[in-house]
Amino acid sequence: MAVGSKEPRARRRRIVAAVTAGVAALALIAAGLAFVGPAWWFPATDDPQVAIRGNAVEQGIASTVTRVRTDAAPWGFAIGEDDVNDWLASRLEPWLDHDERFELPAGWTEPRIRFDEDVIRLAVRSPAGLVVVLDLVPRLEPTLVVFDLGGTSMGRLPVPDFLSDPMLPASLSAEGGPNPVEGGFLTVPRGFELGDGRRIRIEDLEVASGEMGIRFRTLP
Predict the structure, then answer these.
(1) Residue 178: burial class (beta carbons within 10 Å; 0-12, 13-18, 19+)
(2) Backbone dihedral angles phi then psi of residue 213, each to the nearest 5 degrees
(3) Is 199 domain-assigned?
(4) Is 107 exposed, middle or buried (0-12, 13-18, 19+ CB in 10 A)?
(5) Helix (H) or strand (E) run with residue 219 in it
(6) Structure confidence at residue 174 (pLDDT)
(7) What are phi and psi for residue 185, nearest 5 degrees?
(8) pLDDT score of 190
(9) Cα separation of 111 and 44, whole Å?
(10) pTM of structure
């Protein structure tokens, strides 16, 4: 009897060990997915070509936006995600240093984006070193472009809403301070004043796979 009773106990120990090893492996995989950004995210780089392309994007948009137009017809442009990411990687920091109205939440760095159908996926490194991905869905309000939070991931691992809320910064306005629109995660003004006093207004915004189109109107 004594000899026979040892075999079931040994089998149970092997089962427990196998389950423990499996759970540990899953935990390691989950941790790896959380710390690895999505395939389209890339960290800070000193690549001079990225800086050249980012500067060209900035100059091209500035030229289009500030062009003097003789009528009130709407105008606009489409921009690809690669161009946006080159600008974010090379020109965002100098731009933030130049304009004190805009700032990233403390400790959040290296934002990159991907355009999908009707969704802007924003990946940013958190203060804890995790790459957090936010699915932002834009909508137009009378004076603001509001980006609703449609979902959250840590790296490549989806995160339920009740877990994502504590790890995210509070809802934001691009001009600093709290978000004035309930339900939106980020807001951007629809109207901007140019250096010569003219004003432009965002009339429409459309996000498609790989690019975003924006239509403006120059106000009198």
Answers:
(1) exposed
(2) -105, 135
(3) yes
(4) exposed
(5) strand 211-219
(6) 53
(7) -90, -35
(8) 92
(9) 9
(10) 0.76
